Protein 1
Amino acid sequence: MNNHDTHVGGPDLAALAVLLADGTRADFCLALLDGRAWTATELARHAGVAASTATGHLNLLVSGGLLTQERQGRHRYVRLADPDTAELIEKIASMAPRRADPPRSLPAANRSRALARARTCYDHLAGALGVAITEAMTDRGLLDWEQGLTLTSDGTAWLAELGIALPPAARRPPVRSCLDWTERRPHLAGAVGAALCRHAFDAGWITRIGTNRAVALTDAGERALKDRLGLAVQPQTPVS
Amino acid sequence: MNNHDTHVGGPDLAALAVLLADGTRADFCLALLDGRAWTATELARHAGVAASTATGHLNLLVSGGLLTQERQGRHRYVRLADPDTAELIEKIASMAPRRADPPRSLPAANRSRALARARTCYDHLAGALGVAITEAMTDRGLLDWEQGLTLTSDGTAWLAELGIALPPAARRPPVRSCLDWTERRPHLAGAVGAALCRHAFDAGWITRIGTNRAVALTDAGERALKDRLGLAVQPQTPVS
DNA sequence: GGGACGCTTCGACGGGGGCCGAAGGATCGC
DNA sequence: GCGATCCTTCGGCCCCCGTCGAAGCGTCCC
């Protein structure tokens, strides 16, 4: 065993890291980054392990505080515990090495391309679309990167036009930058990023593709982005 | 083994987390958060493991990109690879559960109290002193927490008075908040936090206690904080 | 009620990884 | 040169942990 000669009450780094140090549990967390609740079976199939194995992992993650669960009948729904946890996973993911995975199957490759185009990252938009929106907002002076990332007064007004009120100052920063792992450029996260993403769903700008994190830009979304941000992007037909 | 059904080239979360998922390696990283280079033997003694064990861990951490090393004669110096890595470790540490360690020895407890008063956290100031400075800067309008943490124009001027120039906008944010694990309140990090800490050492406001992360406020430092920030704190005699 | 489904518990298996001490190479100081 | 110091390699030990399938329990639906 280990002889931990650390300060009294110091943070137990390893206890938290162990939870993410297993490939299957990491897969779970990455999947849950879409911000939705998954059932145990869905996660098991996603990661390619037996249901009993998934149960064990979920017990660890829940008791470790990374996940919260909700029982509904015979289903066990789990989701990331809070935005802080999502940020933690995003941060680690952004610094982790890339997986050298052989392309598996055609549908997997397709889904992967869809993911690269547009997806949710916990509760905000990512992928090429997320990055494009973030850069368009920057070009229009809605975001300021001079000194960390901040929302300008123009940005606040722009959000208000959309009917998005700036959430009251909470522990969570209103705007935050999140490094995109396909684009390698930052996209908008934080409370505003989440609100914007929610609005995009509500207003029908984007729709989910299948049950995963990938989303498709609708015609309405394409028009809205052109009108609101002068952003020209191709809508995607939400097949596959 | 594991059947990872993830997207091609996705982040290998587990590969990074594994590095921090061992108590000894976590101890190393926490110790290296003081921003200085440690020798392999120092770290081994700090964590209470054999030198050969430390060698193995350091090999993993270095090849994993978390640490960089430098050989000088028979010494192997290691330090955290970059500020990004330090932020990663800070982030995990801030969310990790506290260690329920029985207080070991009197000197350890003393050092622990000294650590709680004032210490370095990677390259900036932490502990009660770090938090007090951060809050005094906020009170004086040098920092703004309204919308994330930002440096005000008054803050820029105040730094200039000290001879600290705002570093050019780089990937690293100028100001960042870092949750203090003893105070449970945020202190100033980021490039400005680092510059301020460096200035505090250079100007003789603070000195190291022993070889660890703890620092002591000098008489000169006490006067400077009173003059510059109207902050009343007790200097500490750097014994122990 | 009966069957399908989702989840959990249990036992068994296998492998990986952390630990140490001994021995040896490299470097420094005298 | 000679001992002391720092580090590394190697072998051996042992425990932990991830995996599965079988069996069982609860829930849902027909």
Protein 2
Amino acid sequence: MTDSFSTPAHAFDPATFEPRWQAYWADNKTFRAVEDPTKPKYYTLCMFPYPSGAGLHVGHPESYTAIDIVARSKRMRGFSVLNPIGWDSFGLPAERAAVREQRHPADITREYIGNFKRQLLRLGFSYDWDREISSCEVDYYKWTQWIFLKLHERGLAYLADVPVNWCPAQGTVLANEEVVDGKYVETGEPVERRMMKQWMLRITAYGDRLVDDLEGLDWPEHVKEMQRQWIGRSEGAEVDFKIDGHDASFTVFTTRPDTLFGATYCVLAPEHVLIQKITSADRRADVDAYVATARNRSDLDRQKSAEKEKSGVFTGAYAINPVNGAKVPIWIADYVLATYGTGAIMAVPAHDERDHAFATKFGVPILQVVSAPAGHDVQAEAWTGDGKSMNSGAYDGLDVATFKKQITAWLEENGHGRKRVNFKLRDWLFSRQRYWGEPFPIVHTDAGEVKTLPYSALPVSLPHIEEFKPTAEGLPPLGRAEQAWLQTEVDGVVGWRELNTMPQWAGSCWYYLRYMDARNTELPFDPANERYWGPVDLYIGGIEHAVLHLLYARFWHKVLYDCGMVHTKEPFQKLFNQGMILSFSYKDANGKYLGPHEVEQRGDVWYAIGGDTPLEVKIEKMSKSKKNVVDPMDVVVEYGADALRIYEMFMGPLEQVKPWQTSGVEGVYRFLARVWRLFIDQDSGALRPFGPSNREVTKAIHAAVKEATEGIDLLKFNTPIAKMMEWVNACHGELPAKEECEDLLRILSPWAPHVCEELWLRLGHTTSISAEAWPTWNESALIDDTLEIAVQVGGKMRGAVTVARTADKDTILAAAKADATIARHLEGKEILKEIVVPGRLVNFVVK
RNA sequence: GCGGAAGUGGCGGAAUCGGUAGACGCGCUGGUCUCAGAAGCCAGAGCCGAGAGGUGUGGGGGUUCGAGUCCCCCCUUCCGCACCA
């Protein structure tokens, strides 16, 4: 009832102008990206959003705001900026929702996209909406299929019978990268191993380049390291071992060929093909039992037991060591992986910890062939470091590196082995037994041939089906499509379409290229456009994609590079990971979570409203079950988009994990309201008069311009806000000179574009502030005529004196000694040394 | 176990070519305005101490006139990898 009194007619109210500016930008296509050869380009990109039913969470606007600030400031600094947005819209979650809600995934996906888009528009991001794309629409996935054909043409796509990660809950296979600890990373559902015929992409052929090209990238070191570890390049040798009494041999991979003389046994993985052939009659029962057990154990079990003890069984067969003819027993053990190297190893227990553990348990001899430091007994513990070779015949006395080279050369010359580079990285399992994904441009003929469709036959549209479950015969959901889709003709032969679909990663492997030429109907994109826009200059997204998406996209990019489609070896020049935004949660003694509106603080302790038992307060990841989710749209309704954007940046460094605090949003809202009141008379709505600037205000604006300019380049978006706040504080409620006020609006506009456009308009300008030139600062304006010099006595702070900036050493010392407090501290002491740091401090070293 | 990042007021965080620790914001205290409240505005504050002063950037040592910053040891937290021969 007192609102008319308490709220002036023209008080700061973002809801009155924010939507108006959003409409203005849309109507005028203010942020259209133009291939302008007269300007340098800048390409900003956020990781492809997956539009979920839950809508935006506060993590989305964090990276989007950071990108938007860079994009807006780069435009103001004369760059032609590409800042696009689109939707990663194929994938399992939509299909599961479809089953749950009895609706078609296309309908669900489009609804979610509409919701996301509405929310993003309400936050005022400067996207070129004319380039909006959606990976589930046929005008996009036609080109995903096109790129698949390119991969196939180059021998990089093949069908293979492979052990796959089958997730029964999802009803599909998963890529290695999607499985952690035997569980699907997205849902935590268990994964088991099966043999299946699947489409694979030969990413391993690019292993070397994927490692080597990391070198020149401006990426966080730990992300590069994660990629290196995942690719896991290791250099060594393959060695062939004949089997005593059999016309057979097997090959091992080792990184330590220099320890060949110390091999006291060999191990085959339980899946190794030779096992049946070489096992002796008296060992067969044990071997069969061991192999059967190993086969039935899940990866998770295998991993768990790895932490405890080694297991294994002797085959009864012996291998012949090619370097010295020694016969060593062949064991089977599941600590040797079928999928890495050759699935077989030579074991050198003296110099490998795993072999040592195994040898100790099963009583296999341990033979030292590399000298260890005094006091190190290889019988007790393996020595894996450097040393001189011993017990190695003619090779004794060599260091590890030299011996490796010599023995590898000897192996090659004598046909017993060869130099070899191995990767942990395996080929990418590229098919999924699901509906909501890109169909393969592949046809299987009745004669059993696998044929690719010609480019002219694209797109292969996803057929409409009603049920998204496997067929009764166990075929993937696409088996439910009509005969007219299932059966087709290629090269004059009738055949059946591939029923698998591509994984969700396919669409996100090249979307950043489509943005460069989003409406091209002839090609995925025109290479001329790529030469202008590529590569992405700044890419921001979550650390969760450090391996998966970034590895796959780099792989495809390199293939397109080899096809002459793109002109850079790498797609993303600079990468940055935003830190997750956490939130406070409140839990009562019964373990029940309470929402922020159900709790109150009394003193330092939180209680349920009206309750008297203290609650447990924690900072946790936002989740519905913890009742600590912050909906960015709620924040917009209460404080406006500008306040949300500024708070997301003001919370702390972008890369840091940090907790959401609604009181902090109120703080930045108050800042914006102060800016508003500085410019606008709240009662009349009129622009308030400019006045004279003083030294303090002028210094503050230059400091703010400097901090904003440098902060944006360093992706430090929090401290510039502090400097702008200092300028407002320095104004003490009175507008200073017009130019300084305009500079403030210019530098604030990337963070808070709506209020800055509004005030810019009210200053009488008729064009958008987003097209203004970025201001510059003057270092000289930052320097004061007088300086405060800190004074220490014996290294302890005792006071400060104010002197002219030009004051010389003696003047400063005299001023310091004249200060009453300093004089008191110097009294009765002998000054041993006088240290003067110009412009900073004086230190009297005393006795 | 291996690798990486980080520990600063009641809270989020500033400041690292070594040079006045705690900018800015939140919260708090006091004042102003008001019949009253809210908002706004002004002022205060690391901690201990009445004060002089002491003390203080996870802990312990060291280098230095001077250390949040450099060196050594330790503790804690978070993240990644985890039989890859």
